[in-house]
Amino acid sequence: MYCEKCGRLEHGNRPCRDDLAVIYKRPRYAASSAAHGPRRPQADSLICGMMSLFLPGLGQLCQGRIGAGLSCLFLVFLSVIALLLFWPLGLLGYLVVVIIAVVDAARA
């Protein structure tokens, strides 16, 4: 037994998916946001950029981008080690990591 409206198997006493799409005014087969859980409020980009200025990677962590934040923190750790071992090049590496982290946090 197939539904006359959508062509799928009978729904029983549940309404057809096409009827629900019209009621809720959403396109057919649209992904439900309820499946992804509640959305977190987006952090302000300027605040996250300033946080990354003080500790690179902290702005990305504040935005919920865990992978980017931890990789920035790891790069800061490596650049501090390079700063201690190779003074001028380590400072340049640290400044590059800080600038990239601030721009990345401010743009996202």
Summarize the structure in words.
- This protein has 5 helices and no strands.
- With 108 residues, it is mainly α.
- The chain has 2 domains: 1-33, no CATH class; 45-107.
- Helix 2 runs antiparallel to helix 5 (87-107) and helix 4 runs antiparallel to helix 5.
- It is rod-shaped and about 75 Å long.
- The model is unreliable at 26-32 (pLDDT under 50).
One letter per element, helices H and strands E, the order comes to: HHHHH
Distance between the termini: 50 Å
Q: Would you report the number of β strands?
A: 0
- Class from secondary-structure proportions: mainly alpha
Give the SSE layout.
Elements: H1 17-24, H2 45-54, H3 58-62, H4 66-85, H5 87-107
